[in-house]
Model the fold of this input.
Amino acid sequence: RSLLQRAVKRLMAEGFYGKVAPGSEENRSMEIARGIQLREKVVTAEDSQVIQISVEGGVPDRVARIVNAIAEQYVADNLDQKRQRNTLNNILTLHSANTRKSLSERLSCS
Done:
């Protein structure tokens, strides 16, 4: 699922797009995300995580909410990735320490 679709699902959960028939959330979010893609532009600054998001539309408050939802999802995704990297680093550090300890014990018994 794309970042945009996740942002749309977040808006759907808030009722931004009105009531969505149960069981049709996935298809509806993809449909809405495709429509927004035609009206959006995302520009990234070189060598940075700074992005500029713009969406064309006729109702400024709605457009602002869509842009903010995309930005919020971008931040949430980056935080999730950072947490996953930290978890993996912690696992690898612990594994490395256990391996060193095991090797040290084996060498001292030799």
Notes: Residues 60-109 form the longest helix (50 residues). The beta strands are 40-44, 51-55.
